[in-house]
Design a protein that fits this description.
Blueprint lengths: L5 H10 L4 E4 L8 H10 L4 E3 L3 E2 H6 L2 H5 L8 E6 L3 H11 L6 E6 L4 H5 L10 H14 L4 E9 L4 H14 L4 E9 L6 H4 L7 H10 L4 E5 L5 H7 L5 E4 L1 H5 L7 H6 L8 H17 L4 H5 L12 H10 L9 H8 L6 H6 L1
Parallel strand pairs: 1-2, 1-9, 2-4, 3-4, 4-5, 5-6, 6-7, 7-8, 8-9
Helix pairs in contact: 5-7, 7-8, 14-17, 16-17
Length: 345
């Protein structure tokens, strides 16, 4: 039987109070503006940054890469890398910014990530992942977690996944998020790797049974709150990616369904006003409305007026000197009378 460091189990209990609902890290999508927007819809969902490469933090524009609005908490920083010393240095640099968790990416299958010898290809070298986790833990003052696949290429998941998990848990990892698909490093694009390899939720459930004292979260192909709730009968956390991004209104059900908040209808006008105020601050600091509006386009999918809403945000927000009034115009195009039914569907 697999044993787990009791100190790790205690950290799990303190930080990860199941159930946990999270919005997945997504490159080019979950930037600070996306996260601020999602936080206005759910007060409790755990939000993740897009993956930030350790080298970029060490040598690049740290303020642009790491700064975020205090309203985003709880928010986790996802790092990419395979050099323990560089990852530890990135954690040191990020510490003053106040993230609630540091996550190591062992799941992204893109060619760009593989060329840097990190992401999903690290599943082939679990000892390297363990060394990275151990180095990060030495300098981190918040939980360090790992997000992985069930295996890559010709690996047998029933062997590869528990081997990786045992290594990183022994190195001090506080939690593991598992995307319930293999990644194929050659022959499939990142998009195809999210769709073609078959989902195997059962292996994630078996890992939870095998490591009962470890926080284990599940990711991959989860589209609705009902599906999320069903998974939480087997694991500690559930993570949605594109489903939450492309129809962010579903996040309005998170606080009630998973965190015990009172059941209330979302105040979409209040959301409009808060996003307009946020946009005004961003523009005053030299930003553009499009930086924010692009993340809001899918908010009212399925409602009357949603098409016009999307047109306004996609077209008018991209114009030079576009201001917060574009958000007001977009919201005015939507009929909210069926919003509650659309969210819970």
């Amino acid at each position: 039987m697999t044993t787990v460091n009791t100190a790790v189990s205690e950290r799990n209990r303190r930080y990860f109070k199941a159930p946990v609902f999270a919005v997945a890290p997504m490159i080019d999508w979950t930037d600070r503006h996306c996260r601020f927007f999602h936080r206005q819809i759910s007060r409790n969902a755990l939000l993740y940054t897009e993956m930030v490469v350790a080298d970029a933090i060490i040598h690049g524009p740290r303020e642009r890469l790491l700064s975020f609005d205090a309203a985003e908490h709880p928010v986790a920083l996802q790092l990419g890398g395979s050099d323990p010393a560089k990852l530890a240095e990135a954690v040191r640099i990020a510490e003053p910014y106040g993230y609630d968790e540091i996550n190591l990416n062992v799941g992204c299958p893109s060619d760009r990530v593989q060329s840097g010898t990190f992401g999903a290809c690290l599943m082939l070298t679990p000892e390297t992942v363990a060394e990275c986790v151990a180095a990060m833990k030495k300098v981190a003052d918040v939980p360090v977690t790992v997000k992985c696949r069930i295996g890559v290429d010709e690996q047998e998941p029933e062997e590869a996944l528990p081997t990786l998990m045992t290594r990183v848990l022994d190195a001090g990892a506080d939690a593991i998020w598992i995307h319930a698909r293999k990644a194929w490093l050659k022959g499939l694009s990142p998009k195809e790797n999210r769709e073609i390899p078959p989902l195997d939720y059962e292996i994630v459930y078996r890992m939870k049974a095998r490591f009962p004292d470890v926080f284990i979260g599940i990711n991959g192909g989860i589209h609705t709150m009902d599906e999320a709730e069903a998974h939480l009968a087997h694991v500690d956390g559930v993570m949605l990616g594109r489903a939450a991004y492309q129809n962010a209104a579903i996040l309005s059900d998170v606080d009630h369904r998973f965190y015990g908040a009172p059941a209330t209808e979302p105040d979409w006008n209040d959301l409009r006003d808060r996003m307009m105020a946020y946009a005004e601050r961003h523009i005053a600091n030299g930003g553009r409305l499009q930086h924010i509006a692009r993340h809001m386009v899918g908010l009212f999918t399925g409602l009357p007026g949603a098409r016009r809403y999307r047109q306004i945000l996609s077209t008018d927000a991209a114009k030079p000197n576009a201001g917060p009034e574009v958000i007001a115009a977009a919201f005015a195009a939507v009929d909210f009378s069926g919003a509650a039914e659309a969210v819970s569907a």
